[in-house]
Specification:
- It contains eight helices and six strands; from the N terminus they run E-E-H-H-H-H-H-H-E-H-E-E-E-H.
- With 222 residues, the chain is mainly alpha-helical.
- A hairpin with a 2-residue loop joins strand 1 and strand 2.
- Helix 3 crosses helix 5.
- The longest helix has 28 residues.
- It starts with 6 loop residues before the first strand and ends in a 14-residue tail after the last helix.
Length: 222
């Protein structure tokens, strides 16, 4: 990296266009009309935003090229969702979205590494949902996991959400043909995920009872 010039992902920032406000307005009008060429020009004209945001994550030990690509996804999402009626500059709107996309990547990547080290299990993930509202999301489990076990996971999360009055959910991916310890590659920027071990204890008696989980009794809380 040299002063006045940054080479990252094959992009020479010294050659990136600098768009005026009038040019941005004209391009954005074309984008809303479905002009893909205008969208590409708008992306190139705002890549400096991505570069400025990834500087905040310099201590993350992640490859800057990876962060740049993830940041570009955030930039594209910002372009797709931005509306001039928001009455804010595009950069003001886009920077939090770019940073948010990178933070999600770092969070997910950190959890994957924790699983690979053996320091994070599905039981710990369930416990974590008691203090946050994300539930168990996009967790990959062995393909042969019994349907009753998955039903029990859903029941666990429903109970946690009920007691804590939080919104929780379960979205697990049974990886057909994969077993505990394998890695499922989603391809491209979707990344990969290790297969988490799941208890083989059968909760079928409990699940087959059916019934509903009642609403919480707030008056009985401490």
């Amino acid at each position: 990296m040299t002063q006045g010039k940054v080479e990252i992902c094959g992009v020479n920032t010294a050659k990136l266009p600098i768009l005026s406000e009038k040019e941005k307005e004209a391009l954005f009008a074309r984008i809303k009309a479905g002009d893909e060429e205008a969208k590409e020009q708008y992306i190139k004209g705002n890549l400096r935003l991505v570069l400025s945001v990834i500087k905040r994550f310099g201590n993350s030990n992640e490859n800057p090229d990876d962060l740049f690509q993830i940041g570009c996804i955030g930039l594209i999402k910002a372009i797709d969702r931005f509306d001039v009626q928001f009455q804010v500059k595009f950069s003001t709107y886009a920077v939090p979205m770019i940073a948010g996309e990178i933070k999600r990547f770092l969070r997910d990547d950190g959890m994957i590494k924790a699983v690979e080290r053996g320091s994070l299990s599905i039981e710990k993930l369930e416990a974590m949902t008691a203090v946050c509202s994300v539930g168990i999301d996009m967790v990959v489990i062995p393909g042969e996991t019994d349907a009753a076990v998955i039903s029990a996971l859903i029941a666990d999360e429903a109970a946690i959400g009920m007691v804590n009055t939080k919104t929780t959910a379960v979205r697990v991916i049974p990886a057909i043909g994969c077993k505990e310890g394998d890695v499922l590659d989603f391809g491209g920027l979707l990344g990969y995920a290790p297969i988490l071990p799941v208890s083989t204890f059968s909760p079928s008696v409990f699940v087959n009872r059916g019934g509903r989980i009642p609403a919480p009794l707030q008056a009985l809380k401490n």
